[in-house]
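note to self: dont lose this again. the chain is below, predicted strucutre after it. 147 aa total, dont forget to put it in the shared folder this time
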Amino acid sequence: MSDLTIDLLVKRYHYFKNEVKSPLMMAIVIYGKKYPEPTREKLENPLALAVMDIWDEFFQWEDNPGRDSFFKSLRRISVGELEANDYLAQRLTWFIMKAVSMYMNGKWPPNPPCFPFSNWKDPEVIKAREEAVEDMICNMADKMGVR
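---
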């Protein structure tokens, strides 16, 4: 485990959860709701339209009501900024191109078929998750000599 992971998830977990992450997420929700609700009819920028497509697919599978307002606020912010802010759009495009390059050359590994592991409604992921859990149980049983 990295030093950063230990700091965030072990040493100062409650501090980051309660004093940093929770207020940050709340601020995103509050300020994100100030952006107009994006609709295809309001958009012209191809980047904003592409991100709307991504968000539409995301919301088709995402299944965590406790994070719904957070993700919908992120959608308002990301689509609104891409529609109206060339400076940000150019930098986000650069960032995405770099992320794709890292993915293609193996530095950013793909998710296993069973991920996202929780709160995700994609039937293929659910099936892969069930198989992964069954494999894990069988492996543990083999190691314990139960099977």
